[in-house]
Amino acid sequence: MRNERVLYEFDDFRIDSGQFMLVRHGQPQPITPTVFRILLHLLGNAGRVVTKEELVSNVWPDSYVAEGNLNRNVSTLRKVLGEKPRDHRYIETIPKTGYRFIAPVRQTEYQPANGLMAVSAQPARRTIVGRSIERRDQLHTFDQMKEGRGGIVCLSGENGMGKTALTEAFLADLADRGDTFNLAVARCSEPLTQPEPYEPFLECVSSLLAAESTADLVRSHAPTWHRTITQAAEDGGGSGNGGGRMKREFYELLRQMSVAHPLVLVIDDFHWADIASVELLSFLASRLVTMRVLIVVCVRPVDLMLQKHPFLQARAQMAAGGLIKEIVLPPLTKSHIQELIASELPVGALSDDLASFVLARSEGNPLFAVEILRKLRQDAGFAKRQDAVPDPIRSLIRSRLEPLHETDRGLLAAASVQGYEFDSAILAKSLTMMPEEVEERLQAVCEVHGLIRRLRDEELMDGKFTVRYSFVHALCQLVCQESIPPTRKASLNSAVAEAFLSYYGN
């Protein structure tokens, strides 16, 4: 018998010699120790005729066993494998001699998982509320993947909706359950120059290469990836590579690595991924369905739209084929906000008014809610100042406003004078712009940048129409209003008042 721990795969079966475990479609199959040892010896000598004497001496080294006992155990093994009488798909009987395992067998040396170690290195867990359904969905997807039905999960949500926090909670949930898995985590960076092909996947492979338990697999099955990473480290930059070869090697690496343990790849900010990475993800999509591999990508829809990113089309094609599961993170509800307040503020601070205030200001955005609560801990009078915006949120909103055309930023600033909700016709008249141009620009800001939302069309007193909009966040309206100098704000207030009178006055 072999002393080292070995993993075998054939058809839908996976065998772990170290755990005496036979798994089919991810489900353990009942098997006695004696029958398991016979299977192990046949697998370890697949393609070769194993004599009955050899089997007996290896399976029962210190006992006398009649040939009939061996035959009965081999017959039991055939039943365990689902092999019908005379339908020798796996085990061939060599008359008066022995047996031969004839199905193609893949053999891999066992390597310990790196997942639990990587999870334990995560920072202290953050309070996460309102994501119980999403966490259950991710755990269910992981369990399916363990059974050999891998795939891609796309976590979708705007800034502050908790994509990273949810991913960390998912990995922590796996650790709490005692799941073992290989893990690689990467993050795409905003491209200031031409990005290196496969950048986030290279980061994943680099982390696998750095782990002793997975480095040999990278060197053996992804030599081009290994060469690209090591040369980049030596030269201080990336090097050219063959796209087709990279894809095939990466697929083989995933297949080999997921034999011993499930493999989880997490890539944050995939809305900044390079084209080669999107193509690799598309290439893998249909192939993951028979593997124990789960790829989690986090995206911001607005950034995909702004860049007309190739992942938009790739994601739509994968979704049409049922090859990707999208989890869209919804806003928090009032009950979620109450739960967050109870965990963030001193005992006794929770009240219905406070929860309503935080919900109204944050619009259910978890990051906004946390920052508002942090500000409340520092300044008890913060809730009484209707124009107050925490600095981190102000910076975040300004970064969202920056890509807008100067005219569009001016439109939103003027719209903020009307309030949280505003009319396109009032906006056009107060700025002496053509209503058609204002409507077109607002529609683009709504659909592409996601800073405002279209509410409804309304008919004015003179029979003309206006489009009613609101800011996506009340804090966004406040930040836009802050950008207006005092003199300009006074003139805008006057112009808006006159526009209201002209449309709604007597």
Task: Write up this protein.
- By secondary structure, the protein is an alpha/beta fold.
- The termini are far apart.
- It has 22 helices and 16 strands.
- A 5-stranded antiparallel beta sheet has the order 4-3-2-1-8, sandwiched between helices.
- Mean pLDDT is 87; it is low at 116-124.
- 52% of the residues lie in helices and 15% in strands.
- Helix 11 packs parallel to helix 13 (310-320) and helix 19 packs across helix 20.
- It folds into 4 domains: 6-109, Winged helix-like DNA-binding domain superfamily/Winged helix DNA-binding domain (Arc Repressor Mutant, subunit A), CATH 1.10.10; 115-328, P-loop containing nucleotide triphosphate hydrolases (Rossmann fold), CATH 3.40.50; 334-388, no CATH class; 396-504, Winged helix-like DNA-binding domain superfamily/Winged helix DNA-binding domain (Arc Repressor Mutant, subunit A, Orthogonal Bundle).
- The longest helix has 19 residues, at 486-504.
Keywords:
Rossmann fold; about 15% strand; 16 strands; about 500 residues; Arc Repressor Mutant, subunit A; alpha/beta; 5-stranded parallel beta sheet; single chain
